[in-house]
Specification:
Layout: E1 3-10, E2 14-22, E3 28-37, E4 41-42, E5 45-46, H1 49-67, E6 73-77, E7 83-93, H2 103-112, E8 122-134, E9 137-139, E10 149-160, H3 161-172, E11 177-181, H4 184-192, H5 195-200, E12 202-207, E13 212-218, E14 221-228, H6 232-243, H7 247-257, E15 270-274, E16 280-284, H8 285-306, E17 315-319, H9 328-336, E18 341-342, H10 346-352, H11 355-378, H12 385-394
Parallel strand pairs: 1-6, 6-11, 12-17, 17-18
Antiparallel strand pairs: 1-2, 2-3, 4-5, 7-10, 8-9, 8-10, 12-13, 13-14, 15-16
Helix pairs in contact: 4-11, 6-7, 6-8
């Protein structure tokens, strides 16, 4: 029997919903999408529960209307300002008589690394084993190795408990069963990085509304994540201030006329712009683009302070709504002195239209991957075999 799962990405500026149908073989089919401005949030933090509830309901209703059926379950992400990252260590002695470490002991060691993380303020969303050691010797996978002591160094993603509780109350009013709260970078990575890229090393740069998130993947797990309080809305505010426009007009102008390849712009080039109040203005394209260029140059300078050129992985991927700005790939390559690619490939663009919608659908896909892996591991089978099959069918 199929079921209907909603991916709900609650961003700092926009709430996006992707309603998917899950078939009997775990295949995921996108059926409906919806989005709404993130009313009730101020820089990602909840200021009005009532307004936030209305915004969430609006996005969900749009997705249900386009799908033609109601959502039954939901997997959601929360704004990054409610996310906390923590490293920890787990230790345990090997228990099996043979002296060889079993998979169950490996999993138990990872659980032990979580023991001091959960609290009244934070809930554990993900824990990723970064490095195992057997009797003090680093090893990629300890299963089957002989040893007395097992150790793991883990990286965990925590979510603010009060925020998750508030969102749970809102969603339960719609009779939605919450199946998971996930970090949005996992959704992006599932859609926009190959297994080989996540293994060899990849950096996701997600330029969202209020924040830019950096997520480093290596050895198929999230190794490190951080964020800066600069995003697409910051750029829009700069345009509004410098050109004395409303936020609505500044956003519209940003999408229409900005080109970050400044050398390609004729200094005398202007654009005729009709504002929201129907007044007409002529905007110098080079001046407009320089406003945006200055703010994004600041952003990529901050990125370089965290990841100097010699430490950056081979694969760097731009995601988020702002990634669609004209010339941003070329501009970012110049700033970082590295090849950079867009996460929204032609295939993804044709299917999802907007990066925000792709992230919401990616939440469902990543959740299904976890569920499939758990089920197959319990049966002693390859946990990715079924997932790889329906992931190909999805695209």
């Amino acid at each position: 029997m199929s079921k209907h799962i909603l991916g709900l990405d609650i961003g700092s500026s926009t709430i996006c919903a992707s309603l998917c149908n899950i078939g009997k073989h775990h295949e995921v089919q996108l059926r409906g999408v919806g989005h709404a401005p993130a009313a009730g949030l101020q820089k990602g933090k909840i200021q009005s529960v009532e307004l936030l509830q209305k915004a969430i309901e609006k996005a969900i209703q749009k997705a249900e209307l386009s799908a033609g059926f109601r959502a039954e379950e939901v997997v959601l992400s929360i704004p990054v300002c409610h996310i906390h990252f923590q490293t920890s260590t787990g230790l345990m002695p090997a228990k099996h008589r043979s002296g060889k470490i079993k998979d169950s002991e490996k999993m138990e060691c990872v659980k032990r690394s979580q023991s001091d993380l959960a609290s009244e303020k934070h809930l554990i969303l993900h824990t990723f084993p970064i490095q195992f050691k057997v009797d003090g010797i680093p090893i990629a996978d300890p299963v089957g190795k002989k040893g007395v002591h097992l150790e793991v160094y883990s990286y965990s993603v925590l979510g603010a408990a009060d925020t998750i509780t508030t969102l749970s109350h809102i969603l339960k009013r719609r009779r939605l069963v919450i199946r998971g709260v996930l970090y949005e970078a996992m959704a992006h990575a599932e859609l926009m990085l190959t297994e080989a890229e996540k293994d060899s090393g990849s950096l996701l740069i997600d330029i969202g509304g209020k924040f830019t998130k950096l997520s480093l993947f290596e050895k198929n797990v999230l190794q490190k994540s951080l964020f800066f309080p600069i995003g697409g809305d910051t750029v829009t505010a700069d345009i509004a201030y410098c050109l004395k426009l409303s936020a609505f007009d500044a956003e519209k102008l940003k999408r229409q006329a900005v080109n970050l390849i400044l050398d390609a712009i004729d200094p005398n080039d202007t654009i005729e712009f009709i504002s929201q109040d129907h007044s007409k203005r002529f905007i110098n394209t080079l001046y407009l683009s320089r406003i945006v260029h200055a703010r994004l140059a600041e952003l990529f300078t901050l990125i370089k302070t965290q990841y100097p050129s010699h430490t950056m992985p081979a694969t760097i991927v731009l995601v988020g709504g702002t990634s669609r700005l004209k010339g941003l790939v070329e501009f970012s390559q110049t700033c970082l002195n590295k090849p950079i690619q867009l996460g929204m490939t032609d295939t993804l663009q044709a299917r999802f239209k907007k990066p925000e919608i792709a992230c919401a659908a990616g939440l469902v896909i990543y959740h299904q991957k976890l569920q499939t892996a758990q089920a197959y591991r319990a049966r002693g089978k390859d946990p990715l075999s079924r997932f790889n099959k329906w992931f190909k069918e999805f695209f």
